[in-house]
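Sharing a chain and its predicted structure for anyone who wants a worked example. Both blocks are below, sequence first, tokens second.
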Amino acid sequence: MAKGLGTALFVLSFLLVGCTGNVIVEEYREQGPEPAVYFCIRDDCGRQLEALLGKAEKSIHCAFYDLDLKNLISMLGEKSASVEVKVVLDDEPYSGGLSGPGVLVEDKPASRMHNKFCIVDGMYVWTGSFNPTLTDNTQNENNGVLMSSLYLARNYEAEFQELWSGEFSGGSLVEYPLFYHNGMMVESLFCPEDGCEERVASLVAGAQRSVDAMVFSFTSEAIGDAMLLNAHAKIRGLFDASQGGSQYSQFSRLEGFEMDVRKEKSKGKLHHKVFIIDNMTVVTGSYNPTGSGSSRNDENVLILHDERVAKQFSEEFNRLWALNGQ
């Protein structure tokens, strides 16, 4: 499997027999750089993404819900002269500026291509809540995660190829749903086909100490139920003010059961889609826990089981929690 992949990544696969004695679980392991975590506004996610794309030597494949950062658009245009550049966009927010044979605009009325990811040179994956727009980069609270991972890149590349072929709101199950990067367990899902709502709900339900959620839009009753029924964990939820006031939002429901929830008060939006479980596991990506996010839109979820990554997200959560104190 690792033949021809170079010396930068060591990959080992082997078979384990599951605890039932009759289930075969294939386990994948790799070594590589640690994930880099960025928080917009302070880390200038646009600049970080531009730097990544600028290093591309072979290919840039991106799927963006929205894109209007002029420097990034210029970078993509310049790189197309020397590397393969392909970009999939959703038509709802997209107002133009990037066009040509390397651009595909999804225009299905019943769903949204809501992803925010890039694969560079078949090895580097950028994902998170950040749309490469001026507003997301300078006003809204967002996150970006960069990983150098063979398995993750293969998952995202397969998803990108489905989008590029015009297959939206579904597709094949992810090839490597779980693997280990430097010993860190990584889960990779795409909605709706990989059951993102069910997986997030199960993580919340299984939390033993804490669940910290910072979410833009949150209407999922299944995940709300998991919060309400968890008798072990301390639950905190930080909601975007514009979405938390919706009649469909879980904010009022959780507040009604005296759970510790707040609405952000900044001029921008709280655009994260993050759950931090037991200060050990982070759920991030493009997925809002909503009906559309779970069943109609194209979304991606990245779950990192790592105390160091969780610490970075917890610090960001606690910063925003304090800023928006009741």
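Comments welcome. The chain is about 30% helix and 30% strand.
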